[in-house]
Amino acid sequence: MSEVYAARRERLREQCTAGGSAAAVVSQPANVRYLAGASPQGAVLLLGPREDLLLCSKVPTGEPVEGRPDEHLRLQVLGAPDGDAAVAAADLAAAAGAESLAVEEHHLTVARHRALTSVAPRLRLADLGCAVEQLRLVKDDEEISYLRIASEITDQALGELLESILVGRTERHLALELERRLVDHGADGPAFATSVGTGPNSGRGGHRPTDRRVEEGDFLSVCLGANYRGYRCEIGRTFVIGTSPADWQIELYDLVFAAQRAGREALAPGVAYRDVDHAARQVLDSAGYAEQLPALTGHGVGLEIGEDPKLAPTAMGKLDACVPVTVEPGVHLPGRGGVRIDDTLVVRPEADGGPELLTITTKELLAL
Q1: Starting from the edge strand earliest in sequence, which strands make up the sheet with 219-224, in order?
Q2: Who contacts 119 (Cβ-Cβ below 8 Å, separation ≥6)?
Q3: Angle CA(145)–CA(151)–CA(156) in degrees, nearest 5?
Q4: Which end of the chain is more exposed for a tag (fewer CB within 10 A), N or C?
Q5: Three-state DSSP state, 299
Q6: What is the pLDDT of residues 257-310, one digit of tens each?
């Protein structure tokens, strides 16, 4: 992997040089991990005029949650455990003769930006923007393999839950059990806070589990994902508790399923982000659910859950091959509940079989 990290840093260095900066400080944790292999708490990467450094307040543990640093990247531990690695990096860049330093302004606080200016007053600070995030958009084979494993773990955890008795158990209990099963199957942890919604809470995006208990006749919606070696996937499914779904439940489920399928089928290199959103959204909009729809139909996944691209009505840009995204339309009816169906897929050209589905738990409306 050292060669991979070095190549990533070199691509960023070329962009910095083209923008007039001989050095850069990367502070956003996911970006640090992408370029350095690890992102210990508070660490920054200095892309220096002479050499690159990973600056940390303490020696990295090498635990999966923070990653393992590139062995060919020099590590520097700050003398003071409460020191600011970004400020130290700016000081080193100035000492090495850099005149301009690119920083991630979207991640730095105003106070931290002022501290950098104070320690190196002759250093001109430039905005690196989202250059690293753009590099992260297209995933390599190893990144996609990590996402496949994360998806397999997530499918296993969800499949086991569906085989257990659910009636009478609380949303909170089910969410905790799902997260435990993720770790049991090899995840470093959950990709995000697991959501379980029952009855009137079902189908709500980002629902925080409560002490409401599962009842016969409920919709049960779950949204979860595994974090494996820093890479995060997402799956969402909706089920019915009992033996015979009500007519309105079947109708709503079939509608959301059709919208999700339309979104999945729209995924292809060169397709505009907003066109994927439109493909799924128009199915639900035409059925009269425009006001119940979420702000976006899907988003990118990788070292973060909810990274670029955003599949939204006003999103600008077009898909590339090897970009993993979610497609997750849903409808929530206040007081009644709703349906959400969510998959993680990798964009592939039609010649390669079209979009690769990573989360394979059945989307049939199961009665549990």
Answers
A1: 195-198, 219-224, 235-240
A2: 87, 90, 91, 94
A3: 130
A4: N
A5: strand
A6: 999 999 999 999 999 999 999 999 999 999 999 887 888 999 999 999 999 999
* Bond preceding residue 309 cis, omega within 30 of 0: yes
Measured at the alpha carbon of residue 251, what is the angle toward residues 249 and 253, in degrees to the nearest 5? 65
Beta-bridge partner residues of 52: 47
Q: How far apart are CA 328 and CA 334, in angstroms?
A: 19
Q: What is the C-alpha separation between 83 and 57, in angstroms, rounded? A: 7
pTM beyond 0.85: yes
Helix, strand, or coil (residue 201): helix
Spatial distance between the Cα atoms of 332 and 223, rounded to a whole number of angstroms: 14
Least confident residue range of 76-80, 171-175, 183-187: 76-80
Helix intervals (H) in 27-108:
29-36, 85-95
Cα–Cα distance, 368 to 358 (Å, whole number):
24
Distances (CA, A) of 309 to 133, 249, 272, 290, 349: 10, 32, 10, 23, 17
CA dist 67 to 37, 149, 333, Å?
6, 16, 42
Query: Pairing relation of β-strands 52-56 and 74-77?
Result: parallel
Please provide the distance, in angstroms rounded to a whole number, between the alpha carbons at the two ends of the chain.
Answer: 44
**Alpha helical stretches, state H, the chain:** 2-18, 29-36, 85-95, 110-119, 131-136, 141-162, 171-184, 247-265, 273-285
247-265 and 273-285 helices, crossing angle to 10°? 160
CA distance readout (Å), 164 to 147, 174, 362: 27, 10, 17
* Cβ pair 26, 104 in contact under 8 A: yes
